[in-house]
């Protein structure tokens, strides 16, 4: 072996006999350009100092000297590569040379510890470390594993750590088990595993990707450059097979492989999970425990099965034991069977003594390497009663794998070593269907296949069940999907179809619905409040369930425990971006069927309807954050309802509240459709002129009015007004309500005299009936002032509003809605009078107060921002207007608002940008505004046409056409 000896003046080459080699350091690095590296001839002739690679030699010499070593080895110059015989001997000996080195220094030329400036903490260089070329080269694999001491250095000669302190990072980069990185013999790992470690690595010479593994597999063979990688790999395989076939004490006796099922040849996907299972390290001095947790039917057993079969193939010396844990009887029976197979059972053994014998055996060195799988550990009470948790074996060569539906059980048994198994991805789901379908051509209809996978939520068991049904009945994927789209009861029947399955335990059922029934029963027994939450959620839409919608428990802890239980079973999941819950769609259907069979579905539905009715009441004065997330769930319940039996039912109330929400959110077309639907549903209810039915018609007329459909609105209002006068009387509150809306309609049409007469009549009637300081009377007073304003009677309007404002401040709090509305109208009067300095403070107060009271995305808040920005715009305060509008737009976007106010904000913002000469931005935004107006109001609405006209003029502007804006 040739080494470099450190002298006072530098270092020089020295030869040693193999039996007389002194302690030495060794360098691991990546080659640069061949012309930059210092060769054997360079060192021999003393002329390598000018090459870039000489710095690496100097680094190694300096570090070796610091560690008290006088010799070091570097591959570039310690091997005469022109001598083929020496090169071949060196390649075969390389693993041993690295293994015998006192120190191995890894020089990372592409990692600088000073990349973060003065910061030399791991966070500063971790990213570069993980991307280093050193981890991609073939020869560096043995340079990592062979030496007992491997230290990593940056390009600026700063020590980053050693392979022990950096083992987790190295494991994550290379996927090599931590135990191998920390020094376990490579022979302790399977052949396939060792080949896998080099799979993504590269070498300059193609044969070297094979030759660099000779030491890893502890074999020797001739080096033949030019033979090609494939031939070299075949020769290596033959050498490995020959070595492994030689008789030895460790291989003569076949290791037990006691597994309940055969390998599933149709298994597909789950590569990342298998990688985690293979790479999860065994902690020193104790058994590795791993748990696979997930929803019933997600493929936990199949994943564990594939893992142990892969392990058997890679580790011939690894025993595998499989214990079905569905019941105590199954565990006891399998323990007796294993003890008998191992020859350690006694004739008079009790179950407890059998358990102890197995624990002692698995904890002893005699047992060797083993994997113990406990499948279906769902009932933790079995383990607690028998003390199984405390009796688990302890052996650093052992691995225990648990599969469970309950993540809480997984954490209890395996702590943080838990794989959360979720549904398959789209590609894996398609491959799974391909593996199970008889007629593969069915998958050619991609749209049908995608629809099926989506409806079954990519759940493996449901996909296998579907494929089996399709095979048995010779139907298409589209036909099966149509069955899934039928009534809920029919879908449940389909999901309850039993099918042959070679991977289920005797006495257990395998349909999807039966799988979850077990979990439902367990939840009901162990946490009744969690079962109540599940029942409640089953009557909501399965997506985006807000926490505020769930019923209160006896304590906050009860609520947290209930959510934790449902999450642990994977029945629900919490969304990271908004904290809402999503219920698995198939679990949603199965739970509803369970409730239907129990006769309690309607009871839970009534509870949900009552809760939603309360939340959606008076939304005109509530923050949308409180009620907007509940609207999809109200719609879900309304779609399930078969009709309205009477006007006093909670369901009718929910119909009305939901429709009101649509109106208050500026979603006028949807509100119109819903009010029309209510009229159709109540058509058969006794009393066509019932006050509640008249109320629905009045609200529908209000929606027509909001959409500028004045003729339809007036006709319906007059009809309702006459019916209300006849059935309720001219001074009834409902009659006066309709009269108020009709007066507003007249004002909008410019029929100001009619509007004034009707407004004054309502005002007088409300003052007489309710009193002058009642909120409805004050509202009428404001309506009269608005008519005066429209007539140009600004002083009378101002006087009336000032009187009204004084009454409001006396009768109510400053932030009362009546006070704010009066302030809005008074600001409008001031603007008409050319008094903007008095108007703006009022508008600013209204906007700020409504943000606090109603939230930033409420329609009324947005309108207040719109009016204030319009004032800024008209008085050339463009920067103030833009700042305000951008804030209002962001508030609405952040909270998902879809109402008219959002469109108004963008309308004015586009106008601001146009005035600023930013035409490109203005045009793009105005196009969005027009799309919103068409969706919310229709293409013929005046606002839509006005926006289109503005857009046309902007697009015709020469500045826009020239692209100069």
Automatic annotation (TrEMBL):
Q: Which residues form the NB-ARC domain?
A: 289-438
Question: What protein does this entry describe?
Answer: Kinesin light chain 1
Gene3D superfamilies the UniProt entry points to: P-loop containing nucleotide triphosphate hydrolases, Tetratricopeptide repeat domain
The UniProt entry, under InterPro entries, shows: HET, NB-ARC, P-loop_NTPase, TPR-like_helical_dom_sf
A GO molecular-function descriptor:
ADP binding
Query: By its UniProt entry, which SUPFAM superfamilies does this protein fall under?
Result: P-loop containing nucleoside triphosphate hydrolases, TPR-like
Q: Which residues form the Heterokaryon incompatibility domain?
A: 24-113
Its lineage opens with: Eukaryota, Fungi, Dikarya, Ascomycota, Pezizomycotina
